[in-house]
Amino acid sequence: MANENDLSRLNGEYIEKMGAELGSLYTELSEECIWLNNLWNQYVQLYGTSQERLDILEFAAEHFFYLVQKAFFEGTLLNLSRITDPTEMGWGKSKRENVTVKRLPKLVELRILPEVESRLQSIDADVEFARDWRNRRIAHADWHLAITGTAKPLEPVTRKQVEAAISAIGELLNFVQEHYVGSTTAFGHLTAHGQADDLLEALNVVYVQEQEFQSRLSSDTLTSEDLIRRSRNPI
Predict the structure, then answer these.
(1) Range of 168's domain?
(2) Residue 25 and residue 162 in contact, taking contact as beta carbons nearer than 8 Å
(3) Which of 125, 158, 133 is nearest to 77 (CA)?
(4) Residues 116 and 206 reside in one and the same domain
(5) Number of folded domains in the chain?
(6) What is the pTM of this model?
(7) Are the C-beta atoms of residues 88 and 103 closer than 8 Å to each other?
């Protein structure tokens, strides 16, 4: 992921070239999109790469990584819904304004407005599945879905759906960024140290050691190191 100095420089450039209001909005949306991509990338590294990785997670801490999977999955759908929410929600004293891509049409130049509106219409369709999950399962517990069983079931979510929605949002932001700034951001490829891949690499060392130990145990070829290891009480 870009470091703090890079982000600060880019944020200043957005405001300088887009104007204060659009530049500030774009800065927030860009950071939201980076977070969304990073969250999903961690999910895929852990749960969407190979059966071998799933075996390692089950070996290491099955219940814990089930909770992580649920949190990452729901967090992704929540963020997809949030970044594409209406500009205003609620009414009366509870009315509030949101940071969302839906604010872009009011702020962009007229010559790119039709394209922005067209992309937003497509994004609405792309994220409908996430919004339904957010509204009836994640942020709220729908009575008829959870208790009476009379509600329309939630549609199963596919990796293709999630990635198409995330990609469409990034493409919209890059369309705006390229128009004003003359550059784009590789939202799906910004990385930081300490990824899920690094965790799996560390866990795999212990996983392989345990498999080798079990093989020696079954063949009655335990070493003195094995006996010492098994006499200890690991934390």
Answers:
(1) 4-192
(2) no
(3) 133
(4) no
(5) 2
(6) 0.87
(7) no
